[in-house]
Amino acid sequence: MVTFSVGGCDDGEGPSNPNQKRRRVDAGEEVAAATTTREEEEEEENQQPQEGFEMENPPIETLENDANERNSVGSNAGQQNNDLSKKVSAIISDPDVLDCFICSEPLAVPIYQCENGHIACSKCCGELRNKCPMCSMPIGYNRCRAVEKLLESIKISCPNAKYGCKDMFSCSMKSSHEKECIYIPCKCPHTGCGFLASSKELALHFSHRHAGFGIQFTYDKFISVSLNTRQKQIVLLDQNDARLFIVHNHIVQHGNMVHISCMGPKAITDTHYDVLARSQGSTLILQSSTKTIQDNNGDAPTAGFLVIPSDHFGFGQLKLDIRIKSH
Questions:
Q1: Domains along the chain?
Q2: Strand ranges (DSSP E) for the chain?
């Protein structure tokens, strides 16, 4: 733990600032002189002092009380400075120094070093057959304790802090936290809207700003939706937990490809759904699970989709029955 000793002036009257002390003493002498003048005038007027009357010197007593209060405040301030000096704020100008220079992943204990001081994570040491790529010296046998202790003492905030995450963790936990963080930003799926926020904030945003462009649904119940051939998506908004689902529509060679995604964090559990396309007595059924996304970039999936032939479109419209199942 790094400790800073903070120096400073005690009360403004130390040897580093004699002028203030001199002004305070001069002021005391002036007050004493003024008090003596008042006493002489009272003696001339009354000749004899009144019984039980005692002359006080308030200015001097006030100065003593002020001094005691300053000493008390100075003592408390010194204790606070000692507490604050136990913590040090630092800025890492190059965050890459906390990553393994070989695999570029965040360094995690254990960390090894070669005889020349080059460091590498344990995974890379094994993949390199314990041969340092910088100097060809053996690596993977000597722990770099200094860097390990440094990493354990550093606490960093989540990259999603501005979206609501208040967690702080060690550098080695950065990757695992980012995979589980529920505050990862998601981009609004409405065309032309650049709103970016956590999935919950995004659902509130969409329900207020783009209410006419979404369809509300209830889990485990079928809803009917209709889209034309070239319509790229339909947004579904859950009525209870305010999650956004997107029905994607891609034009392919023999018809249209349909699948459903969910806007949310990476660690969210996949949701199962059913899609039915009916036409002239025939029914096409897709039973799959949603893919969690943070940005509706329009990429077509490689699996988990339903290709609907062109003859299922009536007057350029595709009618679907969709059921999203509860968790």
A1: 96-154 (3.30.40.10), 186-324 (2.60.210.10)
A2: 111-113, 119-121, 142-143, 155-157, 168-170, 186-187, 196-197, 214-217, 223-228, 233-238, 244-252, 255-263, 272-279, 282-289, 291-293, 306-309, 317-324
Write the pLDDT tens digit of every residue in 3-46. 323 333 333 333 333 333 333 344 444 434 444 445 555 555 55
- What separation in angstroms does the CA of 299 have from each of 92, 214, 258, 302, 318? 37, 21, 12, 9, 21
Beta bridge partners, 291, equal 261
In the structure encoding, which two tokens stand for residue 219, read together? Answer: 């889990």
What global pTM score does this model have? Answer: 0.61
At CA 13, angle to CA 9 and CA 16, rounded to 5? 60
Q: Looking at residues 223-251, what average pLDDT do you find?
A: 88
What's phi and psi for 38, nearest 5 deg? -65, -40
312: DSSP letter: G
CB-CB contact of 120 with 77 (8 Å): no
Alpha carbons 259 and 282: distance in angstroms, whole number: 20
């001097």: which residue's tokens? 60
DSSP 16: T
Is residue 120 scored above 80 in pLDDT?
yes
Instruction: Report pLDDT digits (tens) over 29-41.
Output: 443 444 444 555 5
Calpha distance 302→42 (Å, rounded): 106
Distance CA 146, CA 311 (A): 69
Q: Is residue 155 a contact partner of residue 168, using CB atoms and an 8 Å limit?
A: yes
